[in-house]
Write a structure and sequence with these properties.
The chain is an alpha/beta fold. The chain has a domain of 202 residues: Rossmann fold, CATH 3.40.50. Helices cover 41% and strands 16% of the residues. The chain is built from 15 helices and 12 strands. The strands form 3 sheets. It has a 7-stranded parallel β-sheet, sandwiched between helices. The chain has a 3-stranded mixed β-sheet with strand order 8-9-11. It has a two-stranded parallel sheet with strand order 6-12. Helix 1 links the parallel strand 1 and strand 2. Helix 3 packs across helix 5 and helix 9 runs parallel beside helix 11. The longest helix has 22 residues. The N and C termini lie far apart (56 Å).
C-alpha cells in the first residue's frame, strides 16, 4: 500500500513508522523541517520524507499524490494549544482541511484515518462511561477539543472514505516532562488509558482494513484492564519516581471542565484490529523501569520539597490565590471558591 503519515515525528507517529517501515508499503511522511525531526527520522531509510508545512496547501498537495491510505495525526497538543492558540487553529483545523483538499484532488480514492480524541465528549466527571453515540461537546476553554470536533465534521462531509479514532488518555514511557496539565485533571477522573505502543499498533494494523472501518467512528482505549482513577494513576507514577503518594494541598487540582472517562465500546476496535498488549500493571512495570534506580534513590529524601515546588505551578491554585473569576470558573466550575 502507498501510505501517507502526518505527525510522524510525534510519540505515536514514530512508533507507527517502526511498525510499518519493515513491511512492504510505500510510506510518505509530511514533516516540518527541524533538527529534532531530521534526527528522529534518520533511522528510517525506506520512507519518502517531504519536509513541508501542513498549513501550506502547496506542501500538502505534494505529499497527497497517489496515496492509498492516509494516517492523519499531525496536531498541536496541550499545553502548547493554550500558549499558541493561533498556531493551533492553523495546524489542527486548517491543516486537516488542507489534507482533505489535497487527497480529494490528488488521491480521491485514498482512505483517510483521523486521530481524534476523548476530549470531544467534554467533562464526564459525573457520567464517566462513554459511548460513541454520546453527544460531542467541549467547554469554551478546550481549543484542542473544539478543533477535533470541527475536523471530524470536515472529514465526514468530504468526498473521501474515512474512519475516525477517538483516542483515550495515551500514555508513553520515558517522557517524564512536567506539564501544567498535571493539575488540570480532577483527581476523581476515571481514565481508560492506552499505551503509545498499543495505539500505534492500532493505526499500523488499520492499513488494509478499509472495508470494515469505512465511514465509522471508534473509541480507542486499552479496555477494562486499563481503567484507573487519576488519583491512583498519579500515586503509582509518583512512587515510581520515589516521590511517594501524590499528596498536595486542597485546591491544587482542578475539579471540573476536563475530559476522559471509560469507554463502553472500545472493544469494538480491538475486535477488528487486535492491537492490545498492555494493561495498567504492564504499563507501570515499563514506567518504573524507565526511571533510573539512582534517580529514584536520590529523589526519596527530597520528595516533600520536590512536591512543594511542583504544586507551585498549579494554575487552579493560582486562580484562587489571585481571585481570577474566569480561571476559577474554568478549573472549578463555579466562581465561588
Amino acid at each position: 500500500m502507498r501510505v501517507l503519515i502526518t505527525g510522524a515525528t510525534g510519540n505515536i507517529g514514530i512508533e507507527i513508522l517502526k511498525k510499518l517501515s519493515p513491511l512492504d508499503h510505500e510510506i510518505t511522511i509530511l514533516a516540518r523541517r527541524s533538527k529534532k525531526n531530521t534526527k528522529a527520522l534518520k533511522q528510517f531509510k525506506n520512507v519518502k520524507i517531504i519536509y513541508g508545512d501542513i498549513t501550506s496547501q502547496e506542501d500538502v498537495n505534494q505529499a497527497c499524490k497517489n496515496q492509498d491510505y492516509a494516517l492523519h495525526l499531525a496536531a498541536v497538543i496541550p499545553p502548547l494549544v493554550d500558549e499558541k492558540p493561533a498556531l493551533a487553529d492553523k495546524v489542527n483545523l486548517e491543516g486537516t482541511r488542507n489534507i482533505i483538499n489535497g487527497l480529494e484532488k490528488h488521491s480521491p480514492n485514498c482512505f483517510l484515518i483521523f486521530s481524534s480524541s476523548v476530549t470531544v465528549y467534554g467533562d464526564r466527571i459525573n457520567t464517566p462511561v462513554i459511548s460513541i453515540n454520546d453527544p460531542i461537546q467541549t467547554t469554551k476553554w478546550d481549543k484542542y477539543g473544539q478543533a477535533k470536533i470541527e475536523s471530524e465534521k470536515l472529514i465526514q462531509n468530504s468526498s473521501l472514505d474515512w474512519s475516525i479514532f477517538r483516542l483515550s488518555a495515551i500514555m508513553g514511557i520515558g517522557n517524564h516532562k512536567v506539564s501544567k496539565i498535571l493539575f488540570h485533571v480532577p483527581l476523581n477522573t476515571i481514565m481508560e488509558i492506552a499505551t503509545v505502543d498499543d495505539t500505534s499498533r492500532a493505526f499500523a494494523k488499520s492499513i488494509g482494513k478499509r472495508k470494515v472501518l469505512n465511514k465509522q467512528i471508534f473509541n480507542l482505549g486499552g479496555g477494562k484492564d486499563c481503567v484507573i482513577t487519576y488519583q491512583a494513576f498519579l500515586n503509582r507514577a509518583f512512587k515510581s519516581f520515589g516521590l511517594g503518594n501524590a499528596e498536595f494541598p486542597n485546591k491544587t487540582f482542578a475539579e471540573a471542565n476536563f475530559h476522559c472517562g471509560e469507554f463502553s465500546d472500545s472493544d469494538k476496535l480491538e475486535e477488528i484490529l487486535k492491537f492490545r498488549k498492555d494493561n495498567i500493571d504492564s504499563y507501570f512495570e515499563q514506567f518504573k523501569a524507565s526511571v533510573p534506580r539512582i534517580q529514584r534513590f536520590l529523589t526519596i529524601p527530597f520528595s516533600p520539597i520536590i512536591k512543594y515546588f511542583l504544586g507551585r505551578i498549579s494554575e487552579p491554585r493560582k486562580a484562587i490565590k489571585e481571585n481570577n473569576k474566569e480561571d476559577i470558573q474554568r478549573y472549578f466550575g463555579t466562581t465561588t471558591k
